[in-house]
Automatic annotation (TrEMBL):
Keywords: Glycoprotein, GPI-anchor, Lipoprotein, Membrane, Signal. It comes from Brassica napus. It is a lipid-anchor; GPI-anchor. Its main location: membrane. Residues 33-118 form the X8 domain. InterPro entries: X8, X8_dom_prot. Residues 1-27 form the signal peptide. The keyword Mitochondrion does not apply. Pfam families: X8. This is X8 domain-containing protein. The keyword Mitochondrion does not apply.
Length: 125
């Protein structure tokens, strides 16, 4: 009887652990979102949205400057994704904060690469 109770306790503990750990195994909480350049958007739309976001705050664009950790790869969409996500993370509780005239989309996949880490701030979206 003691073995059966021990096994039941172990099984229950493993189930609780699985319910808690599995959603965060990726290192990000379940439901984490990022904002990246829309691969279907035309380059002029992405460029205009990037310019607008940089005008909102120089801080949004500081990480894509030459010598900074998100400069490479030096492409319009890579730079736009960094800036769009930074804007989104700081404004994600506002409707439409990841739209940029359809130049951006929400993703649940962390777009971080090499030395460029995309921030993620918990929020309502």
């Amino acid at each position: 009887m003691a073995i059966k109770n021990s096994f039941s306790l172990l099984l229950s503990s493993l189930m609780v652990f699985a319910l808690i750990a599995i959603p965060t195994i990726s290192g990000q909480p379940s439901g984490t979102t990022w904002c990246v350049a829309n691969p279907k958007a035309q380059d002029p739309v992405v460029q205009a949205a990037l310019g607008w976001a940089c005008q909102q705050s120089e801080a949004y664009c500081s990480r894509i400057q030459r010598g900074q950790n998100c400069y490479s790869p030096n492409t319009l969409r890579d730079h736009a994704s960094v800036v769009f996500n930074t804007y989104y993370q700081h404004n994600k509780n506002q409707a439409g904060s990841c739209d940029f005239n359809s130049a951006a989309v929400i993703t649940h996949t962390d777009p971080s690469h090499d030395t460029c880490q995309f921030e993620s701030v918990p929020g309502s979206k």
